[in-house]
Design goal:
Distance between the termini: 45 Å
Number of domains: 1
Strand content: 25-35%
Order of helices and strands: HEEEHEHEE
CATH class: Alpha Beta
Oligomer: single chain
CATH superfamily: Gcn5-related N-acetyltransferase (GNAT)
Helix content: 25-40%
CATH topology: Aminopeptidase
Shape: globular
Number of strands: 6
Length: about 140
Amino acid sequence: MSDFEVSDDADPAIRGAILEGLLAYNRSKVGAPGTRPLHVVVRDPDSGIVVGGLTGRTDKGWLFIELFNLPEELRGGGLGARLLAAAEDEARARGCNGVWLDSYSFQAPDFYRKQGYVEFGAVPDNPTGHTRFFFLKRF
């Protein structure tokens, strides 16, 4: 089996086949994933509409924060730190060892450093002219 192709086909079956093979291999090495979503949500008090927050998942003893956004008018007053602390508290309650995430240089790397996160890697020029940082915080 040495034939391969390069494609930009967005067929979900392609991704599914590759993912299933990877998951089967991972299960053979570390057992069932145990992935569990985690969301910390900010809602508009009048409408109840979600206006910001964070979303991620716990798996294999770590919380991965995938998305974190607050509208400009809610930044700088400590709400972001409180949301992050709430996610960390839930991760601890789930038995996690820590949290990891990534942030671009034009996003919030200094915010994460202030919250005790340590940079463990960076990809320069991702995108061109900026850096993608990877952070973690051990409990």
